[in-house]
Amino acid sequence: MDLQxxxxxxxxxVYDRLRDSAPVCRITGTDGTPAWxxxxxxxxxxxxxxxxxxxxxxxxxxxxxxxxALPPALDANLLNMDPPDHTRIRRLVSRAFTPRRTEQxxxxxxxxxxxxxxxxxxxxxxxxxxxxxxxxxxIVICDLLGVPEDRRLDFRTWTDALITPDPSRPHxxxxxxxxxxxxxxxxxxxxxxRPADDLLSDLIAVRDGADARDGDRLSEDELMSLAxxxxxxxxxxxxQLIGNAIHTLLEHPEEQARxxxxxxxxxxxxxxxxxxxxxAPLAIRRFPxxxxxxxxxxxxxxxxxxLSLSAANRDPARFPRPDLLDLDRDASGHLALGHGIHYCLxxxxxxxxxxxxxxxxxxxxxxxxxAGPAPRWRPSLRARGLLELPxxxxxxxx
Length: 398
Fold this sequence. Notes:
Layout lengths: L3 H6 L1 H11 L2 E5 L5 E5 L2 H8 L4 E2 L17 H4 L9 H9 L5 H22 L2 E5 H6 L1 H11 L6 H12 L8 H22 L5 H10 L11 H32 L1 H9 L4 H11 L10 E2 L3 E3 L2 E3 L5 E3 L1 H5 L33 H18 L2 E4 L19 E5 L4
Helix pairs in contact: 6-8, 6-16, 8-12, 9-10, 12-16, 14-16
């Protein structure tokens, strides 16, 4: 069953059909190889926490969907690991993404949002992805890691090449990976010679420190891969989260007005916005370590399993009237940022960035409405996001 075209054009209607008729079905993955797609909320949530579903590609029997092809120096990351290595590495980096650390970042995030809106001016039309939703998280995560300002645009170009491959440029993704590897190699060398007050310097200190316990020490590939993952995922998911939230509020002006009037409702609203239009249609691929049964379907060991976060979040068995945006809804339990031991490490930061981005935007512009034709979605099953978002904005009521 090849559903790619349908899923790109009308994802939620396809998910509705699959949940009813084939909640676990064989499909063709994004790289043209077979995979099993799971769409019901209860099944997806249980599978996300099932230790028999491994992220380690060594459990793949081959011939199935494996995801992005990366060199070893970028591939030894948390999205390819099970415990105990996953536990060890996550523990080393988790202190950078604690709620307390996130609270300390709120003021700098707001200052960055305000600067970006200053650049837009008091009124006009702009692409809110290019001018706001994309630069905000890249600035935040690059500041956290210590990436020089003159290299940030490069990284955005590379991630776009990986997430949304251009059919007219078949070698672009491979070139982007090669460029990123060179970039991180240079950056690591620079941080080793000139450590600073940033996360990357801290991780290098953990890797190189004489007092590091052998059990906690990072390998060189793990260090490089961790830096890549933090930058890649910390940027990519949050761009979609912010851009999708703005787009959703443009389509629901009454909810936009409500949040403008009561900013205290924003934290809960972010949860519903993430449920309604999350940044990642699919969780990272998994490989059963033994034959498993999901909704009565047996998936053989070593085959590829794709868990649809988007389908789960629109499952009426868990969220009544799921296609309705309801800011009064208790959206807790949504799976937009995952579940289980692989729950998004940067979730507190992504939530804070989205909340602050919306607060600054709604506070600045009482007029905020779509401009031009309907925006185009990225042609990707890896990321649910917009190619552009033309918006008319004004600091004065019209």
